[in-house]
């Protein structure tokens, strides 16, 4: 009797262990949580004002007072890196959210309704796909001079085609399934079918594309800042720090190393979380 009673408890413990994310994913969640804290309240951990200059300490290496040294203007590198977290994460988050909201809506509507709407959405996606994204952003931001938020807007628009195509393809598969035909038969409106039935079933695709869009936007904005576009001159930015550190590799290589490490760690962590969430969503959908 004792053995029989213990077997369900053992099974429950094993199931809970299987539900736990791998160690790499746990570490990735910790990294993302730290980045969120640095984004929301950077002033709590910044040792100095990132814009404060001390020309007597220009391009100095790491010391007890400045753990990562200073840049050519005598600004604390650690404070600059922490201050750059906000521009590094907020823009990509807005791009990913806007891309998923607009792209998924258009893709699901096109895949479900078909006809002229499907043709129009496909041609729109083809047109945006044909544009050289980075070159378009550089030209628009360089000519208009709109800065960071204009770069965010342009990258958002150029990221929509991928979301449209993925969600349209996933919706087209769902439309042929019996549950959609049953919903149509009982007279449910198209909007309700898409929102309450199709969207939950393609949620793994939406989750995966959201996080991949975030990573792509993170790298894109960092690349633009490296080229001198998007962020105002002197503003803390990981990409701008990479560029500024090129000329100071002999004096203080941490000016380039620190933001490069943060870009790699953040992009890798978000990608690992996205893969894990996608697998969990697919597995839960299969179990249902």
What does this structure look like?
The protein is 75% helix and 0% strand. The chain is mainly alpha-helical and 288 residues long. The protein has one domain (25-41, 71-287): MetI-like fold (Orthogonal Bundle), CATH 1.10.3720.10.
Alpha-carbon distance between the two ends: 33 Å
Overall residue-averaged pLDDT value: 85
CATH level 1 class label? Mainly Alpha
What string gives the helices and strands in order? Answer: HHHHHHHHHHH
User: Mind summarizing the main beta sheet?
Assistant: none
CATH architecture: Orthogonal Bundle
How much of the sequence lies in strands comes to under 5%
Outline of the structure:
This protein is mainly α. The chain has helices spanning 2-19, 23-40, 77-113, 115-130, 133-144, 148-175, 178-185, 190-201, 203-227, 238-246, 254-287. The longest helix is centred in the first third of the chain and has 37 residues, at 77-113.
